[in-house]
């Protein structure tokens, strides 16, 4: 592993020219970044306007108080009046995934509802995901879940195309590697399907976010961006997501490469900080469901783990709810500041 990790560290991802020039990207955030606030769509739009971002991803359907077109058009107008571009999304749409939400009907009904919401809001995409890392160990593994997901996508393909909305599937919570998601998009159809790239989730599939970007960047139409810290422990490694600029990923290089590989896609902060997750890859039983992890990709992850350092988890004091709200707002706002002042993100 040490030899492989050293080799990976020496493998360069393309370096962009003009490294100090402004990075032209729409800057925004995902409402999940401030989930503890429990804001509905109107208040989220007001908060986004206060932060002076370019765009807002509302990544779940529960933020809307109604689903009728009049309400959604009012939400769209509210955003337009404040100079905000809206992106719409939802959660899992694989009917055989462990945590498939049944409240929105069948997978097809759920996805069509999200596409209808996206069109009403003027969102060019409908963000969704397949499932979670637990699905890797389900009967048939990720390949079986992908087969079921592709069937759903093909069933709604004409609806998405007729409404001019691109479905944007995320590499979500350890569910799929970049190569696995690339395969799904290619098989289902690039004409109506793209990627919501998540830089943090890449580390949950034992990938270097920079390498993940090289694979998924050309498919990317939306995003969920955060930094990560990775460090070795007795069983493998720990991964902690962080505010942008406070982990170990070169986010300045990431943003510039993002702008090159996914021109026109928004750079949306999805900050989920305050804890770490262990990946016990030194134990043989860990690898069930991870058989398709590619050695060169894992080697790049190992190289990161060898450079990282342990960081503490968030421990709320006093009123837990208020502490979480304040923490999440601070993490997001520092990330936006870093994007603007250090990375040089400009629309």
Indicate the topology.
Layout: H1 2-9, E1 23-24, E2 27-30, H2 41-51, E3 55-58, H3 69-81, E4 85-92, H4 107-121, E5 125-129, H5 141-163, E6 166-170, H6 178-188, E7 193-198, H7 199-203, H8 209-216, E8 220-224, E9 227-232, E10 237-242, H9 251-261, E11 267-269, E12 276-279, H10 295-307, H11 320-343, E13 345-346
Parallel strand pairs: 1-13, 2-3, 2-11, 3-4, 4-5, 5-6, 6-7, 7-8
Antiparallel strand pairs: 9-10, 10-12
Helix pairs in contact: 1-10, 4-5, 5-6, 6-8, 8-9
List keywords for this structure.
disordered N terminus; eight-stranded parallel beta sheet; three-stranded antiparallel beta sheet; single chain; alpha/beta; TIM Barrel; 347 residues
Plain-language structure description:
- This protein is an alpha/beta fold.
- It has one domain: TIM Barrel, CATH 3.20.20.
- The chain has eleven helices and 13 strands.
- The strands form three sheets. An eight-stranded parallel β-sheet has the order 8-7-6-5-4-3-2-11. The chain has a three-stranded antiparallel β-sheet with strand order 9-10-12.
- Strand 6, helix 6 and strand 7 form a beta-alpha-beta unit.
- Helix 4 packs across helix 5.
- The chain is globular and about 55 Å long.
- The termini are far apart.
- The N terminus is likely disordered.
